[in-house]
Structures are given as C-alpha cells and as structure tokens.
Design brief:
heterodimer; A: 342 residues; alpha/beta; D-Maltodextrin-Binding Protein, domain 2; 2 domains; globular; B: 566 residues; mainly alpha; MetI-like fold; two-stranded antiparallel sheet; 24 helices; disordered N terminus
C-alpha cells in the first residue's frame, strides 16, 4: 500500500534525522573549556601550542573573532553564555557594564606581576598584552607620486595626501576607536574634533576593519593606512614594501584583557588556564608576538625593532585613559557619526 | 489553453473526493502541509519574531523608540536611496544579461554550450568575498589594469558594487532562465514559423511570454539577493554605504542589536512588496509543457549563432578574469610585487588547519539532504494541492530570501541558545549550521523547484488522479520521475551554497564547528590575502569535484542528457 510506503519512508527520514542529532550532541568531554579571544589568528595558535605543552590535560576550544564580532556575540548569548574564559579582548569593550556583570572576580597566581593600573580594582579582569596605533605607508606609492614620508597625524593633513589616506571606521573597529580616542585625549575635545574634521578632507575611505587599512596600503591601493603596529610589522615581514610610522604625537593604544565567566561550567580548569596566562612560558610567548606586554620578562623580537619599534615602547605610547574611552564611547561615536560618517 | 478544463477537472476531482469516500488522502495532504510549514515556522519565523521583539526593545520597556531613532535621520534616507540605486540597476543588468546567456545555451547552436554553461556557474562555487577581491585585484587603484596602463581609475563605490553584485547573482538568474527555456513545445514554434513570423516576432510572442514567470522569479531573486548582500559592498563599496552594510555596522561594530534589527525589518518591506506584486501578476499562469508537447528542434542560423557565440564568450571572459586572477594570486609569492610561483599560501598554518574544509563538506552534505526534502516537498505542496494554504505557504517559503543572513544567524542565537528550547539540543553543532543554511537559501531552492514544477502540466497529475492514482502514487510515478533532475540540482545547489556562505553562519559557529568560508574571512581579516585566496581555491576545488562525481554517477546510470545544476 502506498500509505505504508510513505509512512515507512517518513519513519526512515526521522530516524536518520535523530541519528544525526544524536551524533552531533555526543561531543562534550571532561576538563574541556571554551575560550573566546580576539587575539589574531596566528598569535592565538602560537599561544595555545605553548599552553598545551604546560597543561596537556586541558582541552581548549578556542573561538577567535574580531573585537566587535565577539562583543555582539557575547551579548547575544548572554542569556546562556557558551564560554568559560574571555582571553585577550579589548579593555574598552570589557568594561561595558553588560559584560562586566557576567564576570567573576578572581585573583590568579602571579597577578601581582601585573601593575595595578592594568587590572580591575574588583579583580574581574586584568590586561597583560596590548596593541598600539601605527601608520602603514606604501613606499612604492610615495616614490611614484613624490610624496613626503609622513611622521605624525599632523602630516596627514597636507594637501598632497588628499584621497591617499584610509582609516578604520571607529564605530565598527576597535582600532579605529582607539585612534580617535587618543587624538581627543591628546588634543582635548575641541581641538581634537577640529583636527578630525580637517583630516576628513584627506580620507579616501573609512574602512570597517582595523587591520584592513594596513592591508590595502600594503597592496598599494592607498598610500597611508592608519592601523596598528603589529599588522605593520607582520606585513613588512611578509615582504610588502611598506614603512611603519608611529605618529610623533604618540600612539594610541588598547589593552587586551582576560576574565573568568561567572557561568563557567568548569571553573577549576578555567582557573588553571587563567593562571597559565601569567606563567613565565606564557609571558615569553607574548614577547614574541605583542608590541605591548604589561608584565616584565622577555625581550622584544628583532623583527619588531627592525620595523622601527622603539625598545622602550612606553616612550611613544599615549597614556590612555581607558575608563574615559569606555565611558564616552557611545557619545563620541554618535558625534563622529553625525559629523563625519559617510 | 486548457486552463479552464484543468481547473474544472481538479474541482470535479476534489468534489468527488470529499463527497464519496474519505481515503486518508485529505489527511495526508494536511500532514504534508504541516511538514512544510512547521520547520519554516520554527527555523525562520520563530527566530525572526525574536529579532522583531528585539527591535521594539528599548531602555524603558517596549516602544517605537528604535524606529524613530533610525527612520528620523537623513542618513537613513541616503542609505535607502543607495540600496535601491545599486539593487535596481544590478537587477536590470543581471536579468537582461542572464536571459541572453540562457537563451544562447538553450535556444541556439552556439558550439561548446556545456563549457559556457559551466563557466557561467563558476561564481556559485566561490565565496562572494573572493569575487569582490578579484575585482579589486583587477580594477583597484593598484589593480592590474591601472598598473598596466598607468591610469588611476578607482573602482570603489557605486560601480564597484554593481559590477561585483552582477557577477555574484548572475548564476542564480541564469539557472532560473535556463530551466525555463529548456522546456519548450516545438509545436508552438512550428506554428509561429508556418504563420510567417520572423525570429524576432516569434521571440516576442512565443518565447518571452512563455518565460515571463521565470523573468519575474529571476527579478525577484536577484533583487532580494542584492539588497540583502553585505559582502560585496563591504569590500568594494568604499564609503558608499547601503542598508545591508549598516546592519553589519550596527550589530557587529556597535553591538547595537536594536538598531540593527530595525534596519533588518526595513529590509523586509521591499521584499514583501516584491513577493506580493509577483503573486498578483502571476495569478493566471499555467503549465507550458503539456502532454502533447514535442521536443524543441533548433535549426542552425549563422547570424544568430555567431552573435550569441560572441556574447557568451565576452561574459565568460569577464567571469573568468575576476576569478582567474584570484586563483593566480594564490599561487604567486607576494601579489602584486613578486609574481613568481609559490605554493607557500597552501600550507594553511592556521589554527584548526584544514579541518574547517571537512566541516564544510559534512555540513554541505547535510544541507543538501535536508534542503532537497524541504524545498521539493514545499514546491509540490504549493503547486499541486490547490488548497486554501497555497498562498500563505508560498509566501512562507520565500520569506527567507528577505532575511539578511546575519539577521537570521542572530535570530538563531536569540531563539535557540536557551536550554528550555528543544532545538538547544543541536545548538552549536554542524547540524544547526546546515539547517540555518537550508532556510537561509530556502527561497532560491524553492523557486528553482517550483519554476520547473510549474512547467510540468498539472494535467498529468489530474490524469493520474482520475485514473484512480492516489497522491502518493502520482508523486512516485509521475512527479518524481519528471522532477528528479531538478531535485538533484536543488541538492547540488544547497551543497554549493553551504560550502561558500558566510553571513548566516558567522554567529553560529563554535570552535569545533568552524567552516571553510569563515576561514576565508578570518584569513582575509588577518591580512593574509593570498592565503584567503588559496583557501577559496580549495573550496572551489571541492565543489567542482562533487559536481564531477555526481556527473560521472549520472552518466554511469544512463542519464547523460540530464543537466546537474538547475
């Protein structure tokens, strides 16, 4: 009977479906933690390899997303967070009260090595690495168009750079926000906004990601890409004909923080992981990859120095007021969007 | 043309069923309607309702505040204008070009049709991000053209989006036209010739009217794909912003779900309008391919064949140039500075390595199975049942086309990341990603199936019903044998889209379920442009291999004449 055949095939279909479902669920194991990070893909892979040597019994499921993506995702998931640890994520985003309320106070082993200004007074987060703003300048274009090498934000105002500068959109990029926050903090709000409006005349595009301005400058699409130092160093390493310029006014910067989730289902393992992020091996690894490390220990790699990063990094960094950046983020972005967004 | 007879027949038939005996057929139909509708409710409307609710959520309870914030700005109207300018122009160009291309491959004797066909479909095999990238490598400020001629032409902005969008949606329109033009009744063309009509007149009075459903379907599909796409405007748009990029900006950049969802809701409107218009215009369509149809005979015609040979060659060259340059760049040492051959970008020394590619294949296979079942059944139910549910069900089936992938993905998180929801059991698995892909592309798969279903005259079904065949038997003996090439095509379609799609899955993937297209995005984001290109080449290789395997299987079983991608 045809009814029978159809019900039989329907049954098969549902069994097949159930089988796939079952297969999909049976995936969790003990001593396994989920970590969300915004470390760049390659650095995260290197850190994790080092961690696996020290803590072989912990399996880390690592999800790497850009700062903004991760923020959106954590808020979307906030009813039922999937992760145990946030590792290496912008402090400016971390201090969002909606995020802070999800974090558990924890004092990891060795926390005293992190200077007090790089950690939350209530011990909900601490920052051990960071990144700073830098320009990627394409040598080929400078030569072809006979442009001077810019040394500062001020230089970018020169009329010959019209249509040759790209910058991240601060509304979507953490790097973009740290750049304008540093300008506003350095120059004061009034002069800062005046400068940004002047600069706007030379900007070819506001790009939605923080690393892409450097990448398009590297590819020769535009002469100057305002980005961050590590991207410039890595692209020089790759062989692109670019120069890294740290703005003479001082480089805006952002710290990458780590925190434990209140909702973690495996706190013991999560805490061991967080302890490890302050261990000697971890710190050595940071020095190989990060321009800013808040814990003293290792040495800066040769490639960083060759690319033009000073050994005393503190001398070129703007002393950022992160709580100001965080508290005024919405207001500044709104202002930027009404005045400058295209 | 037999329509009144068919309608009467079906009415008569239904009346007979209702009065005479209740043989379970009605129940079965209701069951089938439920089988189509329930998953659509669960996997499309339910997440959408969560998003909708979010758009009304304000700091102090529910309200219209978000809408007022968004709709009250000048910028919003600028974005609206930009979106429509890009989308309408792209739709016009694509429908025109793709119709011509499909005509060339189905109704002329252009040599090497299969090769041209395959080339036209290549954009389906690659993540759209890479296409936009190819355009930049070719026509960017430092692209090959400017480098060669020393010019300073900039592709960023309006035209960049239009060109890359045309490339992106061309295969979708081509597939719809191709399926529609493939079905033809030679008797009509013979009559037209006997009555003295020239080729142009025949085209205007026979060919075009018989494909008008396809024209509308293609317009509709292209319109919604373009207006909801954010990949191309992101990469080549420069500062030319559209609504879809604004959603991305609000949600990703500022974690502002409320405003993002408002714009998402605004995007739904034009699409709902498009659907309504299409439905009204199409009220009286009927199957073209009747039981008396004779297969199309195409006579050689030098002028026509010559013209179309040049036409398809030009279009194929454009498609190949944009994708070819990406493949080429993936094998160079450092584009565009050192063009010597290198395999270093194929080392995949990234976290998770090549595993995402396997995840993608597994997800693609699941999506193909679920997708073909869901859309095939949906097309059959809406086209053949003649029940009260047809129109709402049809609408339900194409609603997903109006939902930007990101919005759907976010809706999934909000709806299903909740232990009290039964779907939570598969949350964070590849299966949910597969399901998400199926329902994200549901409208397109459904339209491919229903376009071809429309062209199989329903008189077959009625004949079968009158002869006493049950609906199951009709499906098994008539519909499936006629439809299965299309259904196979739908399966391949879902597999391909699953391999390359990005926007819906970005929120759903977990560390263990990263898929290949996301790897492309991550590599791209990190600045490893050549590596991203290399990963895309791998994705394309997988898709092409699957197509080849399917082709070989078909040929072995004697179905050489069946085209796989429809």
């Amino acid at each position: 009977m045809s009814m029978k055949t159809i019900s039989k095939s329907l049954l098969c279909f549902f069994f097949g479906f159930a089988l796939i479902v079952g297969f999909a669920i049976s995936e969790t194991r003990a001593s396994e933690i989920t970590v969300y990070t915004s470390y760049e893909e390659d650095e995260a892979a290197a850190f994790l390899a080092a961690m696996q040597k020290d803590l072989p019994d912990i399996k880390v499921n690592l999800l790497r997303l850009s700062t903004g993506d991760l923020h959106a995702r954590m808020l979307a998931e906030s009813a039922n967070p999937r992760h145990d640890v946030i590792w290496g994520w912008a402090v400016t985003n971390m201090v969002d009260p909606r995020i802070l309320s999800m974090l558990e106070s924890y004092r990891p082993k060795g926390i005293e090595k992190v200077p007090a200004r790089f950690r939350d007074p209530q011990n909900r987060w601490f920052a051990k690495t960071g990144y700073m703003a830098a320009f990627c300048v394409n040598n080929e274009i400078l030569e072809k168009k006979n442009l001077p090498m810019p040394a500062s934000w001020e230089d970018l105002l020169k009329p010959e750079f019209k249509g040759e500068v790209v910058m991240p959109n601060p509304a979507s990029s953490g790097t973009g926000y740290l750049q304008i926050a540093s300008i506003l903090q350095l120059k004061g709000e009034e002069d800062g906004w005046q400068y940004l409006k002047e600069l706007d005349k030379n900007i070819a595009q506001y790009i939605k990601s923080g690393s892409r301005p450097c990448n398009v400058a590297s590819a020769g699409e535009f002469a100057v890409g305002a980005s961050f130092a590590l991207r410039a160093i890595k692209n020089i390493d790759e062989g692109y004909p670019i120069t890294m310029v740290i703005p003479a006014e001082g480089a805006g910067n952002e710290l990458e923080a780590t925190a434990l989730m209140k909702t973690s289902k495996n706190k013991a393992a999560a805490k061991r992981f967080i302890d490890w992020t302050l261990s000697e091996n971890a710190v050595n690894e940071y020095y190989k990859w990060k321009e800013i490390v808040t814990v003293s220990g290792g040495n800066m790699p040769v490639s960083f120095i060759e690319a033009g990063l000073p050994e005393d990094i503190g001398s070129v960094m703007v002393d950022m007021d992160f709580s100001w950046s965080a508290a005024n983020r919405d207001r500044i972005l709104k202002e930027w969007q009404t005045q400058l967004e295209r | 043309m037999g329509i009144s007879i068919s309608a009467a027949g079906s009415l008569f038939n239904r009346a007979k069923n209702r009065t005479a005996e209740i043989d379970g057929e009605f129940l079965l139909k209701v069951f089938a309607v439920g089988l189509v509708a329930l998953p659509l409710f669960l996997f499309v409307l339910y997440p959408l309702i969560h998003i909708l609710g979010r758009s009304f959520q304000t700091a102090d309870g529910l309200g219209l505040e978000n809408y007022i914030t968004v709709l009250g700005t000048r910028r919003f109207f600028l974005l609206l204008y930009n979106s429509f300018a890009v989308t309408l122009l792209t739709t016009g160009i694509t429908v025109f070009l793709a119709y011509g291309f499909a005509f060339a491959t189905q109704r002329t004797r252009v040599p090497g049709k299969n090769v041209f066909r395959l080339i036209a479909l290549i954009p389906l095999f690659a993540p759209s991000l890479v296409q936009a990238q190819g355009l930049l490598l070719l026509m960017g400020r430092n692209g090959i053209i400017n480098r060669t001629f020393g010019t300073e032409y900039s592709i960023y902005g309006f035209w960049g989006i239009v060109i890359s969008s045309v490339l992106y949606v061309f295969p979708y329109a081509f597939l719809i036209f191709s399926a529609s033009l493939a079905a033809a009744d030679n008797r009509l063309y013979e009559s037209s010739r006997i009555l003295g009509a020239g080729p142009f007149r025949t085209f205007m009075t026979v060919t075009l009217p018989s494909t008008r459903f396809a024209v509308m379907a293609a317009t509709f599909v292209v319109f919604t794909l373009v207006i909801t796409d954010f990949g191309n405007p992101m990469v080549v748009g420069g500062d030319y912003n559209v609504l879809a990029t604004e959603v991305y900006n609000q949600v990703i950049g500022q974690a502002n779900f409320e405003l993002g969802t408002v714009i998402g809701m605004v995007l739904l409107l034009p699409v709902a309008a498009a659907v309504a218009i299409e439905k009204v215009l199409n009220k009286n369509h009927y199957g073209l391919l009747s039981e008396h149809a004779t297969p199309m005979v195409i006579e050689p015609h030098h002028l026509r064949d010559g013209f179309f040979a040049v036409y398809v060659t030009l279009i194929c060259l454009c498609i190949l140039a944009v994708l070819g340059i990406v493949i080429f760049a993936s094998f160079t040492h450092l584009w565009p500075y050192r063009l010597d051959f290198s395999l270093r970008h194929y080392a995949f020394d990234v976290q998770n390595g090549i595993q995402p590619l396997y995840n993608s294949i597994y997800t693609g296979l699941m999506a193909a199975g679920i997708g073909v079942t869901a859309t095939g059944l949906a097309a059959y139910v809406t086209e053949r049942f003649n029940t009260f549910f047809d129109t709402p069900l049809y609408f339900l089936c194409i609603v997903p086309a109006a939902v930007p992938g990101m919005v759907l993905g976010l809706g999934y998180i909000m709806a299903f990341n909740n232990p009290s929801n039964p779907v939570y059991a598969i949350y964070g698995s590849l299966l949910l990603i597969a399901i998400c892909n199926v329902y994200y592309y549901h409208a397109q798969g459904f339209l491919i199936a229903s376009t071809s279903m429309k062209q199989i005259s329903s008189t077959y079904d009625e004949a079968s019903a009158i002869l006493g065949g049950t609906f199951i038997r009709t499906v098994r003996k008539i519909t499936l044998p006629l439809m299965w090439p299309t259904l196979l095509g739908v399966a391949v379609f879902f597999f391909m889209r699953s391999m390359v799609t990005l926007s819906a899955v970005i929120f759903l993937m977990t560390p263990s379920t990263q898929v290949a297209a996301v790897s492309v995005l991550l590599l791209e984001d990190r600045g490893a442009v050549n590596q991203a290109a290399a990963f895309s080449v791998c994705i394309m290789a997988v898709v092409v291999s699957v197509l080849l395997v399917a082709r070989i299987l078909l040929n072995t079983f004697g179905h050489r004449h069946i085209s796989l991608i429809r």
